[in-house]
Write a structure and sequence with these properties.
The protein is an alpha/beta fold. Helices cover about 45% and strands about 15% of the residues. The chain is globular, with a radius of gyration of 17 Å. The termini are close together.
Length: about 210
Amino acid sequence: MHLVMFDIDGTLVESYDFDTECFQAAVKDVIGISVGPDWGRYRHVTDSGILSDIIEQSGLENDRERIFFDVKNQFVSRVEKYISCHDVSPIYGAFDFLSRLVKRQDVVLAFATGGWAESAKMKLDAAGIKLPGIALASSSDHYCRTEIMRVAEIRASKEDYDSKTYFGDGPWDQKASETLGYNFVSVGNRIRSAQSINDYAESDKALRYIGL
């Protein structure tokens, strides 16, 4: 059995840019701090991890619980508003590729995203990626990406896997995959890796990378 896991923003959905803008705006609204889009400077590149670092660096730890609650609500609200006014596209071929994998008896699928669960589900739905029954783990489960991936793996199935593959688009995805011993496939052109696809029009190549 092969476990095939996917990031969401920039990997399955064309949402990386507006997701970043909504997060920055939510932080600004709640604590009045402007944050840049250089997520690589944070210890954990997830919504919870980035926000934790911002709170710590700003000396606001005594107000952590309220800030988390308010920023998350503001962010989810902004994402929902954006989606209501704009079309959200899947990465080309993503739905067909996922549908192809769903039909296989030797594959188990999972989503593992650094975003919060509420916004992740909204973006998948908005992009037309509606495939019930696929396990999802997110920043709502843990601030650390490797732990999010572990949760997704457990939720997907309890059995042993012949291989584990993660599709992602950021250096943090690649690093987490290396840490956990996952086979990594990069999507798009934001990073370079030994195994990469521009989009899911290259589905046959992606299947070869999985080992199928």
